[in-house]
Each structure stands twice: as C-alpha cells, then as structure tokens.
Amino acid sequence: MNFVEELRWRGMLNDMMPGTEELLNKEQVTAYLGIDPTADSLHIGHLCGVMMLRHLQRCGHKPLALVGGATGMIGDPSGKSAERNLLDEATLYHNQECIKQQLAKFLDFESDAPNRAELVNNYEWMKNFTFLDFAREVGKHITVNYMMAKDSVKRRLNGEARDGLSFTEFTYQLLQGYDFLHLYETKGCKLQMGGSDQWGNITTGAELIRRTNGGEVFALTCPLITKADGGKFGKTESGNIWLDARYTSPYKFYQFWLNVSDSDAERYIKIFTSIGKEEIDALIAEHRENPHLRVLQKRLAKEVTIMVHSEDDYNAAVDASNILFGNATSEALRKLDEDTLLAVFEGVPQFEISRDALAEGVKAVDLFVDNAAVFASKGEMRKLVQGGGVSLNKEKLTAFDQTITVADLLDEKYLLVQRGKKNYYLLIAK
User: Fold this and answer.
1) Is 277 a catalytic residue?
2) d(Cα 245, Cα 215) in Å, to the nearest integer?
3) 430 an active-site residue?
4) Same domain, residue pair 103 and 9
5) Residue 76 — very low, low, confident or very high, per pLDDT cuts 50/70/90?
6) Label partner for 210 (CA 20 to 30 A): which of 71, 234, 419, 430?
7) CATH code, domain with 164
8) Motif 'KMSKS' region located where (predicted)?
9) Is 173 annotated as a binding residue?
C-alpha cells in the first residue's frame, strides 16, 4: 500500500514537504505524531491523527505516538486564542497511561514486527535538560525572526488574543523542534505528522535538524476536520465526544456518528474507518440511491463504535436505539444500564413519584393522572388503554386500573410510560 495515496483518496492529506512521498516509497520510514495529554482521554478531534498513524503502520511504516508530557506542561499557541492551564507531573503521568491504553486499540504495540508502534514521552528527555543547556544547544540555531514569522505566533501577537503571547508559549516551537531532533538522532525518525495547524512547529523541527547536523527530514499534515456547515467537528451542546466511556457513553458515541449529515458521512467514513476504497465507493453509491435508509451513517457508526469500544458495546447501542425508534421488547429495555437508559430518554418529560406509594401498590390510572401528569384526565387514559395505545416499560397496558408496584421499576428506580407511538414519559421513584 502507498501511504500518501491512501491519505490522498481518503481526504486526509493537507500538505507535505517535497520528497516526502519518494522517501515513503523507498524505505520503511519511522514517523511520529504528537498528542497533547491535557486530559486522561482522547476525544474524536484526535481521531484523524490517530488514524494517520494506523494507516502508516498498515502501509508497513513504523509509527511513534509522542505523548507531550513536557510540552503539555507549557501549551501550544497554534490555533489557540488563550494560554492553557499548566498540568502537574502526576496528572500528566496519569493522562499518559490512559491515552496509551486507548491508542492500543488502533496500533500494534505488542508484536515482534519491525514496524511495531512505540509510545514515547518528551518529558523523559526534557526533564533533566537545564535552561542554560537548552539555550546553548537548541536556541542558538533558530533566530527570533524565524520564530516570529510563524502564523501561530503572528496571530497571537496581532491582537487576536487578549493576553498576547507568553515567553513560555513562544518557546513551544523550539521544544517541539527539539523533539523531532531527538527522535531523529535516537530513533531514526525522518517524518513528523500532525494537523495543518502544526505545520509551523513541524517545519521548525526540520530546520533545527538541518542546522544542527545537516540531516534531511520531512513533514506531512492532515486537514483540520470540520462539519459541512462549517461548525467545529466533534463539539456538541454537552461538549467533546470522548473515546472514554466514562465521559461519553457508547450509546451517545454511536448516536453522534449515526446523526451526521449525508455529506459529512461521505467524508467521515473515509477518514475514520479502515474500509477500503472499492467498498466505500459502493456504500456511497448505495446511499445516494436511497439516502433515507442512512446506509453510510449506519456503517460509519458501526465501524467507529466497534473500533473505539467493542462489538458488544455497538450491539448494545443498536438495541438501545431500537427502544426509542423501533419495536423493542421489555426484555431489551431491562438490559439497559442506568446511564444508557437516561441517555436514550434524555429530553423526554420526567416526573417524580413516591416510592412509598409504589411499595403499597397504586392503580395505573391514579399514578399516571394524579401523581404524574402523563394524561390530562382519567377518561382520556381509559380510552387510550382500551385502544391499545398505552405501554408501561414497553409492554401494552391491558387494564387502566392495573396495580403498579416497585417490582415494575427499571433499575429499581424508573418507569417508562409510552402514550401512542412517539410520546414517552420517564417516572422516577424517590
């Protein structure tokens, strides 16, 4: 497989230095991509870079995932309008270990293959580097004029940032440049990859290597992923879409991909899966014939959810989706954990009911009219029950005065009432 061609047809190639493709076609190349450990989970904004490393390894090259333990303590001005908070050593170490576990789902770190992936942390080679040594060995090679010409620096100095640019952040490109130099000298790394906003930092590293030891290295960037409407990719009203199930449940993760627009689905299935070109072309053609079937979105959501979580999590997410939109059974509903149940029925009307009343047993008509205003009147409820239009926990209610007890609760806490086909109500026993 040709790595550059693979990125090109997938829409993952933004820019590269002359000679990069020739190098990759000539030999097995060691390449690195930096990941900022500012949280203990990656989010889907990291996924394009991670997929670049995955495709690199699939094409026979050796990926290095660099966790920026040192640079994460400082903060990169690229694409930012404000300086970020600095993290302590213990937090950074914790974040690094969590990120490594996530990366292991995408990259082969364990085999004996010559191109097995490695995780490196720039804190290891920076922690004992004194300021004087850094100024003498690194700083003297790159002029301030060269550093000031970078777009990331100019934007911050031209008034886009209220607080300007600290010296700490100004030195970031030198630190990242030194990472490239160190990996070139110790790992034979000849290629650095990253998002298009990293171009300035990457080329500083290439220039540092040229000026210190005359070495020739290369750069390749992917475009920053956006939505078709120009909005920021991966951001929702509730924040980032995380890869860690503690922060974004597999159900919500699956729903994010399932609900992307048609034009975004055509782009994202190339970028965020490993499906081959012929199959993707066939999927796109099938989708365009019957867009209402959402073939692309369903396949995209399946591939990414299984890759990031597991097949079991994917199946559970599909079952959960069917509860809201399909003809799911009471058994399927009872399988949901509390977090998924609340995620599925987020936004539906909720009512608090008395657990003590349920312990004694209460008639459905009293519970759903007097205790929780699911129905406007007892007459309305009676009529709907007789017509088969009321369900409790996905089972048809056969008698409007059926006794409801604590035994009916889902997760010992919830009752799900369905009026008609689309109107759901969640009753919470307290």
Assistant:
1) no
2) 43
3) no
4) yes
5) low
6) 71
7) 3.40.50.620
8) 232-236
9) no
